[in-house]
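DM from R.C. (forwarded with permission)

"hey, sorry to bug you on a friday — could you get me a structure for this? deadline for the figure draft is monday and I only need the backbone to look sensible"
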Amino acid sequence: MAEEGENVRILALDSSGLVASVALSEDENLIAEYTVQYKKTHSQTLLPMLQEICRMVELDLNTVDAVAVAAGPGSFTGLRIGSATAKGLAFALNKPVVPVPTVDGLAYQMYGAGELVCPIMDARRSQVYTGIYEFVPDQDGQFAYDMRVIRQQCAVAFDEIAEALNRLDRGVIFLGDGVPVFQERMAQIMRVPYTAAPLHRARQSAAAVAALGSRYYRQGKAVSGAEFAPCYLRLSQAERERAGQEASL
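My reply, with the result:
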């Protein structure tokens, strides 16, 4: 946890979805961000992106205060890659890890929005990883806005989160890779005004993880590399199949 007025340097990683993203922030400054969404696995992209940022900004990794990582939910493989990278850095550098819930990080992309913010990540099987958020004026004056969690991140059917938003009776901004998947269903079920985030705010971003991670670090929410574990919210397909086989015995 940083002392008041002390600079905080955060290295952030996000490989929770289709996007691979690495960022470096120092206080309110975004020093670097490298984001790719292409036909490569995160195991091919994440470390080379980190190395390129280190080269471009002459970063000594020992100078970072913490490693922030999108901690889940999301792609099981992507989360494992991001988690292993964050834990490896934490052990090697003797630095803490700041877990940032993936859906919270997505919502933070829309910082300051007047509407409700609802990230939706395609979780397959007609479900989404989602949550509901709003931005309210910061009461202690440190920041312009605080992000208030109305509904914590969860894995539910899209219709369930849509009906929850309809009951709140406010405008909504959707973002995430679930937007194109559920676009037609939105038009059928939504009874409140809604829109989708623009392309530069529509997917995961390590810059948002860094910004939120910096806040969490100052609030004492960092953990050791040994303590950190990703949050999957539900079982993987292999675990579901194994549970089904055991239940049938």
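R.C.: lifesaver. Helices lie at 42-56, 76-93, 102-107, 158-168, 178-181, 183-189, 206-218, 237-248.
me: no worries. The chain has eight helices and ten strands.
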